[in-house]
């Protein structure tokens, strides 16, 4: 069972050790923020929150991180956890006592707070997974062209409600996307209608400017056009103006079943923050491993 004081006797200064390591990394690059937050999400959805996403492929095993859906995970997210783990292991009492999965959960809390988001208690006591297979990723991660039914059923399969899903989608208040994730919305939406009509026309032409046809596939643009480096509720205000980048973002406002929640998060940042914390805590409980089916890795990237 997870608890907020799991390491109280095992590694009493754990939270401050992780905090210092994450702050040092943050001073080197802001990418640590969206990179770590997305890494936590992609970890929890495949095999549960067990750091399976961090495993490197070997000669006879293609690991999760090499699945096409994970190739755009930022290297700085992985590096944040590796640096925090090294800082934890530098303390003799803590060495090899704290799971990579818990370090990822704590680092995620730190980056959210560093970007101006809520600070929340993190439940701890996860063990690290024993497998990481690229094939396990198939069909487990949401796609940017999903509609509300697809989003709801995927999140529901992990015990997350529609409200949780909408609150977690608020993570797109930070970070970057490559152009190919939404190019269908600005160039070939449907026959005779190149641009998605739910997209704000001004925003659509801005996107066409930043992502011309045949754009360099390495180009990435801000997902939140207003406050890309602040964890805030601007994401929901953007949706109200037709400035959701993905179909899966904009549908939250377009579909009348989810619109009231978007409006409520857009108009009250405290309501959004509270729902985000609740949803992150629930996400952090998904598929948690114990000593029976997990272990504590000495190297987060090796089984
Ligand atoms: C609701 C369904 C979701 C879909 C369809 C989705 C899809 C995507 C896609 C396509 C990207 C851009 C990747 C790229 O091109 O580099 C992205 C980025 C991102 N996503 Fe999501 N996502 C979803 C939910 C979430 C959730 C729940 C979180 C975290 C709680 C999250 C956190 C992020 C972050 C932080 C980025 C930016 C990454 C970076 O800048 O390195 N996403 N997402
Ligand atoms: Ca996992
Ligand atoms: Ca923002």
From TrEMBL:
Bound cofactor: record note: Binds 1 heme b (iron(II)-protoporphyrin IX) group per subunit. Binds 2 calcium ions per subunit.
Gene3D superfamilies: 1.10.520.10, Peroxidase, domain 2
Catalytic activity: 2 a phenolic donor + H2O2 = 2 a phenolic radical donor + 2 H2O
Enzyme Commission no: 1.11.1.7
Annotated active site: 42
TM helices/strands, residue ranges: none
Entry binding sites for Ca(2+) 1: 43, 46, 48, 50, 52, 64
Keyword Heme (UniProt): yes
UniProt site (Transition state stabilizer): 38
Record-level GO BP terms: hydrogen peroxide catabolic process; response to oxidative stress
Listed GO CC annotations: extracellular region
Location of the protein in the cell: Secreted
All copies of domain Plant heme peroxidase family profile, residue ranges: 1-303
Task performed by this protein: Removal of H(2)O(2), oxidation of toxic reductants, biosynthesis and degradation of lignin, suberization, auxin catabolism, response to environmental stresses such as wounding, pathogen attack and oxidative stress. These functions might be dependent on each isozyme/isoform in each plant tissue.
Protein's name according to its UniProt entry: Peroxidase
The species this protein was found in: Acacia crassicarpa (northern wattle)
């Amino acid at each position: 069972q997870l608890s907020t004081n799991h390491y109280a006797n095992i590694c009493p200064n754990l939270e401050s050790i992780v905090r210092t390591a994450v702050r040092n990394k943050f001073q080197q690059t802001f990418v640590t923020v969206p990179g770590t937050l997305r890494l936590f999400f992609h970890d929890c959805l495949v095999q549960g929150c067990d750091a399976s996403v961090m495993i490197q492929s070997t000669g006879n095993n293609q690991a999760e991180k090499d699945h096409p859906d994970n190739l755009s995970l930022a290297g700085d997210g992985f590096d944040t956890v590796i640096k925090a783990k090294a800082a934890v292991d530098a303390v003799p009492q803590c060495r090899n006592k704290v799971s990579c999965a818990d370090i990822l959960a704590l680092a995620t809390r730190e980056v959210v707070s560093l970007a101006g988001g809520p600070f929340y208690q993190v439940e701890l006591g996860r063990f690290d997974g024993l497998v990481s297979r690229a094939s396990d990723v198939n069909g487990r991660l949401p796609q940017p062209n999903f509609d509300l039914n697809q989003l709801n059923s995927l999140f529901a399969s992990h015990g997350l409600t529609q409200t949780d899903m909408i609150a977690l989608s608020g993570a797109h208040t930070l970070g970057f996307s490559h152009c190919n994730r939404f190019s269908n919305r600005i160039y070939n939406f449907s026959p005779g209608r190149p641009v998605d009509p739910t997209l704000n026309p001004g925003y659509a032409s801005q996107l066409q400017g930043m992502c011309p046809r045949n754009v360099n596939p390495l180009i990435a643009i801000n997902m939140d056009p207003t406050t890309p480096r602040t964890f805030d509720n601007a994401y929901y205000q953007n949706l109200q103006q037709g400035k959701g980048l993905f179909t899966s973002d904009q549908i939250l406002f377009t579909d009348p079943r989810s619109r009231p929640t978007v409006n409520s998060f857009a108009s009250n940042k405290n309501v959004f923050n509270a729902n985000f914390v609740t949803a992150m805590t629930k996400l952090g409980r998904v598929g948690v491993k114990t000593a029976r089916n997990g272990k504590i890795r000495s190297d987060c990237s090796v089984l």
